[in-house]
Specification:
The structure holds two protein chains of two kinds. Chain A is mainly beta. Chain A contains three helices and 30 strands. In chain A, the strands form seven sheets. In chain A, strands 3, 4, 7, 8, 9, 12, 13, 14, 15, 16, 17 and 18 form a twelve-stranded antiparallel sheet that branches. Chain A has a five-stranded antiparallel sheet with strand order 2-20-28-25-26. A four-stranded antiparallel sheet of chain A has the order 1-30-23-27. Chain B is mainly β. Chain B is built from four helices and 21 strands. In chain B, the strands form two sheets. A 14-stranded antiparallel barrel of chain B has the order 3-4-5-7-8-9-10-13-14-15-18-19-20-21. Chain B has a two-stranded antiparallel ribbon with strand order 16-17. The interface between A and B is large, with 43 and 61 residues.
Chain lengths: 425, 388
C-alpha cells in the first residue's frame, strides 16, 4: 500500500483496512475453442485488381511467380518546348523516336540475393487492365477470356534489364519506336507491357512504372525532348492457388479475411481460478466485468513467396449479417476492441519460424456478448467478427494461423474482475 | 448590504451535506455526526442550545420563539485533516454545508422555522495499490473506494412564547439523503486492460420529532433543553446493492445554559446525549455503535471592536464521543475554538446582516485504541440576514 495523494479532495492512500466490504478480485480465464467458438473460416478476394497500387514481380521465388502488367497513357499529341531564341513553342506533330520504361523498386520490401534480370514484353492478346488475372486476360463477370500463355501472353521481347539491389532503386528498359507506336494506338486492345523476372529467388515490389518518351519537334528535328506518361491500368498477376486445409489467413494480397462465429457467452460459468473448491466461488460471464478479452492465435508458416512483405496490422471488427447476403459481402461493424493491436513482423510467418502466440484484442465485442440480451425485444449482439489487415490493398502477402481442427486452434483469453456486493457496515 | 446577499444566496442554494474526502472515521456505520449549528455556536462549544442572543442553530425548536424579525442563516465549513493510520500519514480536505435555516415570526408570540442541516457525513475515499497476479505475471492495480453523501435532516419548527421569558417549541421533520459508493480498479501500467467500476447507492428516509424550551430566569441568563425522537431510518437500495438498512435512530437530549458573567462577557455551556447504541441492531453487530456524550462551552467578549464595528471574540472547547466504533474502540473528538463576529449592516431595530466565523483545532481518535487518528483545522463561516 502506497500513499497516493496528499492534496485536497483526493483520496487517501492510507486506511485501506478500514474500507468495508471484500476485496476486488481479478482473474484470468482461458477458454478452449470448443467453449466459445462455433466456427471459423477464411474468405478471399476483398481487393480488386484496380484497387492495387504497386506491382510484385517474381520468377519462382519460393514458389511464387508474378508478372507485372501495364498499359501506358498514349504519348501526348502536342509538345511544348523552348527554341534557341528562348521562345516557348508548341509542336502539334512531334515524332517519338524511342523511350524507356522505368520501374522504381521498393528496396525495403523487395527480396533479392543479387542482381535480378527482368524482361519487358509487348502483350500479344486483348486484355482488360481492370480484371486480368494469372489465368484470365478478361474477367468482367459476364466475359471470361483466358490467356494463351498464363501470366500474360507475350507478343515480343522488347528489352531486358538488370536490377542490382546494391546499386539502385530503379530499373530501366529501352523501348523501340515500333513498340511506342503500337502502344500509342488507343484502338489496339492488346497494347500493354508485360514484365517478367527471369532470375529466381527474387521478389521485387515496384510502386511506380512510367514510360519516358524521346520526342523530336517537327520544327526542330535536331532536338530531343523527353516527356513522361504514366500507367493507366494493369498492376500484376500472380500464380497462386488458395491453400487447402483449416488454416486461417489474414492479409493483403491475395486478400484474405478470417471470420469467426462465437457461441453464446452469457450463460458460461467457471470456477474461480486459484480458489479452493469449497469456496464455491463461481464466475458467471454475464456478472463479471471483462477487463480484457483477446483471441489467442498461433502463427503458422505461410508459403514462402507469400510471406507478408511488411508488418501485418490486424484489426477485428464485428460482422453484421444480412439475410440472403453471403458472409463475404456482409458489412463490417465497429471495432471489436477500443484499440488496435501492434504490428506483427513478417518473419513471424516464415516457414519454420516457430513464433509464440499472438493476441488480437476483442474486449468490447466479447463484453457485449457476455452481457447478453439485456432487454426483451432488443437486437441480439453480433456474434461474428472478422480479422483483416488494416492495409489490405497496400500489403503483399498474408499471415497464417491455426484454425479449428488444427493442432493449435484459437483460444480466448479473458481477464475479468468481480467485487462483492457493497454493504454499509 | 447588497454585497452580502449573493454570498448568502449561494450558501442557500447548496444543500447541507458534504463535499470531497472528509474523514476516515466516516468509514464505519453511518459515518460521523454533523452538527447543524452556526459559527457562533461552533465557537462557543458546539452544542448550540441555551445561548443568549441570536442563533441560527437547529438544535432547539423553541429558538424560533421570541424572534421579532424574519431571518435566514447559512453556514459553510471547510476543513483540513492530517490523518495517521498504522504508521502512515496523509492530508485530506473537504467542505461541508452544515446548515440552512429560516425563521418567520407571527404576531408577537409565535415563530415558524424551516431548517435543513447536516446529521451524518459518510464522505471518504481510500486508494490502495497492489500487484495482481494475472496469468504468469503480476500487474499493478490501483483500487479506489469513494463514498459520498450521508444523512441530512429537514425540519419545520413551531415555537410559542408563553411569557416574555419562556419559549417552547415543537418540530417535525425527516431524515433524508443519499449515499453513493463507487468501487473501481484500474491497471495504470497496462493500457490494454480496461478498468473496473461498480456503483452502489442508497436513499435514506426516516422521521424525526423534536420538542424544546428555553427560559430566561433573569435578563442575563438563559437555559434551554430539547429532545429529539427519531424513528427508523430506512436505507433503500437504489442501484448496485440489495442491502436494505433499517436503523433505529437515537433519542437525543440537549441542554445548555448561558449567562452574563460581567458586562460584555457571556459564558456558555452545554451537553448532548444520543442513544446511538440503538443503531447497532441494524448492522447486526452490537459492538458497532455506542451511546455518545458531547460537552462543550465557551466565553464571548462582546465589547471588542475593529474598524469602528463591534467585533465579538469567542473562545470555546468541545469534547465528544463518536457513535460508530473503529477496531472495537469508541473514537473521541476534542477541539478548541476561536471565533469572531461582525454586524455588516443594521438599522434602528437591530442587525440586518451578521457574519460569524469560528476556527477549530482538534483531534480525533486514539492511535493506541483504533490505530487511526486525525488532527484537523475546521473553519465555520455563517451568515444571517434579517428582514424588516
Amino acid at each position: 500500500m502506497v500513499a497516493l495523494a496528499c492534496a485536497d479532495e483526493d483520496p487517501t492512500g492510507i486506511g485501506g483496512p478500514l474500507v468495508p466490504g471484500g476485496a476486488v478480485r481479478t482473474y484470468e480465464i482461458v477458454l478452449e475453442p470448443e467453449q466459445f467458438l462455433a466456427s471459423d473460416t477464411t474468405l478471399g478476394g476483398f481487393v480488386a485488381p484496380d484497387q492495387i497500387f504497386f506491382r510484385v514481380l517474381a520468377g519462382g521465388y519460393e514458389g511464387l511467380t508474378s508478372n507485372g502488367l501495364a498499359r501506358f497513357a498514349p504519348p501526348p499529341a502536342t509538345l511544348t518546348y523552348v527554341d534557341a531564341s528562348g521562345a516557348t513553342r508548341t509542336d502539334t506533330m512531334p515524332t517519338y523516336v524511342g523511350g524507356r520504361v522505368v520501374l522504381s523498386v521498393d528496396t525495403l520490401r523487395s527480396v533479392a540475393s543479387g542482381p535480378v534480370r527482368l524482361e519487358l514484353h509487348r502483350i500479344g492478346e486483348e486484355w482488360d487492365p481492370q480484371s486480368a488475372s494469372w489465368t484470365l486476360r478478361v474477367d468482367s463477370g459476364g466475359v471470361q477470356l483466358p490467356w494463351t500463355e498464363p501470366g500474360g501472353t507475350s507478343a515480343a521481347l522488347v528489352d531486358t534489364a538488370t536490377w542490382d539491389p546494391a546499386e539502385g532503386d530503379s530499373v530501366t528498359f529501352d523501348v523501340d519506336s515500333l513498340t511506342l507506336a503500337l502502344w500509342a494506338d488507343t484502338l489496339d486492345v492488346t497494347r500493354g507491357a508485360l514484365i517478367r523476372v527471369a532470375t529466381p529467388d527474387a521478389r521485387i515490389r515496384s510502386p511506380v512504372a512510367v514510360l519516358r518518351l524521346d520526342a523530336r519537334p517537327s520544327a526542330k528535328p535536331d532536338t530531343v525532348i523527353v516527356t513522361t506518361v504514366g500507367s493507366i491500368g494493369g498492376w500484376f498477376v500472380l500464380d497462386s492457388d488458395t491453400p487447402a486445409g483449416s488454416a486461417l489467413r489474414v492479409g493483403g494480397l491475395p486478400s484474405y479475411r478470417s471470420y469467426f462465429q462465437v457461441q453464446r457467452l452469457d450463460t458460461l460459468a467457471f470456477p474461480c481460478p486459484g480458489e479452493p473448491p469449497e469456496s464455491n466461488c463461481v464466475l458467471r460471464l454475464n456478472d463479471v466485468t471483462i477487463n480484457y478479452a483477446a483471441l489467442v492465435l498461433q502463427p503458422e508458416g505461410t508459403p514462402g513467396g507469400l510471406v507478408p512483405d511488411d508488418s501485418l496490422r490486424i484489426e477485428a471488427r464485428t460482422v453484421l449479417p444480412v439475410p440472403g447476403i453471403p458472409l463475404a459481402r456482409s458489412p463490417l461493424g465497429s471495432l471489436a476492441a477500443g484499440f488496435a493491436m501492434g504490428p506483427i513482423e513478417p518473419a513471424t510467418f516464415r516457414p519454420g519460424a516457430n513464433p509464440g502466440t499472438i493476441e488480437v484484442p476483442l474486449t468490447r465485442f466479447i463484453a457485449t456478448l457476455a452481457r447478453g440480451r439485456r432487454e426483451e425485444g432488443a437486437d441480439p449482439p453480433p456474434e461474428r467478427f472478422a480479422l483483416y489487415d488494416a492495409r489490405e490493398n497496400s500489403l503483399f502477402g498474408y499471415g497464417t494461423f491455426g484454425g479449428l481442427g488444427s493442432a493449435s486452434p484459437p483460444r480466448l483469453r479473458l481477464i475479468v474482475t468481480v467485487a462483492p456486493e457493497a454493504e454499509i457496515r | 448590504m447588497m454585497r452580502v446577499f449573493p454570498a448568502a444566496l449561494l450558501a442557500l442554494l447548496v444543500l447541507p451535506g458534504a463535499a470531497g474526502a472528509q474523514s476516515l472515521f466516516s468509514t464505519r456505520g453511518l459515518g460521523v455526526p454533523v452538527e447543524p449549528v452556526d459559527a457562533r455556536a461552533r465557537a462557543l462549544g458546539g452544542i448550540g442550545i441555551g445561548m443568549l442572543g441570536w442563533t441560527g442553530s437547529m438544535v432547539n425548536p423553541a429558538e424560533a420563539a421570541g424572534v421579532y424579525r424574519r431571518g435566514i442563516s447559512a453556514a459553510i465549513q471547510p476543513s483540513r485533516r492530517s490523518v495517521e493510520f498504522e504508521g502512515e500519514s496523509d492530508v485530506l480536505g473537504g467542505t461541508r454545508f452544515p446548515l440552512v435555516r429560516a425563521v418567520l415570526p407571527f404576531g408577537g408570540r409565535m415563530g415558524l422555522a424551516v431548517g435543513y442541516g447536516g446529521f451524518l457525513d459518510q464522505g471518504w475515499a481510500v486508494s490502495t495499490e497492489s500487484m495482481v497476479p494475472i496469468g504468469n505475471q503480476d500487474v499493478r492495480a490501483v483500487d479506489l473506494v469513494e463514498s459520498s453523501g450521508g444523512v441530512a435532516q429537514a425540519r419545520v419548527d413551531f415555537a410559542y412564547l408563553l411569557t416574555p421569558s419562556l419559549g417552547v417549541g415543537v418540530g417535525a421533520g425527516v431524515y433524508t439523503g443519499r449515499l453513493e459508493r463507487v468501487l473501481s480498479r484500474s491497471f495504470p501500467d497496462n493500457q490494454l486492460i480496461e478498468g473496473f467500476s461498480t456503483v452502489a447507492a442508497w436513499n435514506y428516509r426516516g422521521p424525526s420529532f423534536s420538542a424544546g424550551a428555553w427560559w430566561e430566569p433573569l435578563p442575563i441568563a438563559r437555559v434551554g433543553a430539547s429532545v429529539t425522537w427519531a424513528g427508523e431510518l430506512r436505507g433503500e437500495p437504489e442501484e448496485g446493492t440489495t442491502q436494505h438498512l433499517r436503523i433505529d435512530m437515537p433519542l437525543q437530549f440537549s441542554v445548555g445554559a448561558s449567562g452574563q458573567l460581567a458586562p460584555g462577557l457571556l459564558a456558555v455551556a452545554g451537553a448532548r446525549w444520543a442513544g446511538w447504541s440503538s443503531a447497532a441492531d441494524g448492522f447486526g453487530d452490537p459492538d458497532v455503535a455506542a451511546d455518545t456524550w458531547e460537552v462543550g462551552g465557551g466565553v464571548e467578549w462582546s465589547r471588542g471592536r475593529a474598524l469602528s464595528r463591534p467585533l465579538p471574540v469567542r473562545l470555546g472547547a468541545r469534547y465528544a464521543r463518536l457513535p460508530f466504533r473503529i477496531e472495537g474502540a469508541t473514537p473521541t473528538e476534542f477541539a478548541l475554538a476561536l471565533g469572531f463576529g461582525s454586524v455588516l449592516a443594521r438599522d434602528e431595530f437591530g442587525p440586518r446582516a451578521v457574519v460569524d466565523a469560528a476556527i477549530e483545532r482538534g483531534r480525533r481518535g486514539d492511535a493506541a485504541a483504533t490505530g487511526l487518528t486525525e488532527s484537523f483545522w475546521r473553519l465555520t463561516i455563517s451568515m444571517s440576514l434579517f428582514g424588516q
